[in-house]
Amino acid sequence: MLIAAALLSLAACSKPAPQEGAAPPAAVTVLKLQAAPVVLSDELPGRVAAFRTADIRPQVGGIVLRRQFEQGADVQAGQKLFQLNPAPFQADVDSAAAALQHAVATANRASSQADRLKPLVEADAISRQAYDDAVAQREQAVATVAQARASLARRRLDLAFASIEAPIAGRIGSELVTEGALVGLADATPMARIQQIDKVYVDVRQPAAALAALQASGTGGADKLPVTILGADGQPHPVTGRILFSGISVDAGTGDAVIRVLVDNPQRQLLPGMFVRARIARAVQAHGVLLPQQAVLRSSGGQAQAWVLDGTHKASLKPITVGDVVEHQYVVSGGLKAGDTVVIEGQERLQPGATAAPQPWKRAVVATAAAAKAR
Hints:
alpha+beta; six-stranded mixed β-sheet
């Protein structure tokens, strides 16, 4: 019995140690690709310009008596802005009116004289020369009356110009002259400036080589393409703009052409001189496939690659071709198709042929919104 126990003990010691359990499948997040319309666009720098701009300048020279507007306020077309001293212009009007009266009186006397001489010349009581001189004086007097009327109209116009009005509706800036200043027609500095900004232009520069694709895109031409204006904070303007024209001329120094975009600006958020970015649609893919950027790896040679899971969750690394970036996603142009399951996160845990434990991938913005809601 002792010998049998010893033999059993030796047999137990000679058995191999049990193997450790196999490693669990790598946990990864995946996305099943889907086809959807994709709009390809370019973001280009642009600068805002007022829809209309009017410099307020005097049409007659004089002393500024008062300002009749609030600086920075909205003004209407025809609203009075400045009042010049009207006294000199009123005096000119009175003088022109007196000259007109004198001319009318002279014309009446010359006309009466010609009428009295007409029967005399027919009766050969006076010479024909005397009658012709009277008729000529009458015609000259009539011309003098017309000239005096025109002079009076001009003087009245100068008097009206002493009250300076807004030529357009818009927002007026600060006054550039004050009460008591002498202004004239030759002044280089305007009295004020009005800008209409309820709608604005955005002048965008684009390489001339890209104009052909822009003009050929869209069913209605480039002027039908939507344009999204992005502010300094990257937020889009609430109103979409439209292209008015493009490629009128090309800057010889930079090779860029100007694209003018018209944008409604009811809240006055876009101000003249502001630098913005314009997102201009270039093309539309009816069945485009988008892949998040973090799913794309690069080989040592720069080849784009992505991990793909088959129906049994086995991983394989496939070369792919990607193009434009749309909202942090690549547009896939080759190597993948709709319905493929692509690994988005956890690629470092994978080996070719290894089995993975996939979980649905959620966008960061969705996760952030959910966390904010939970708080």
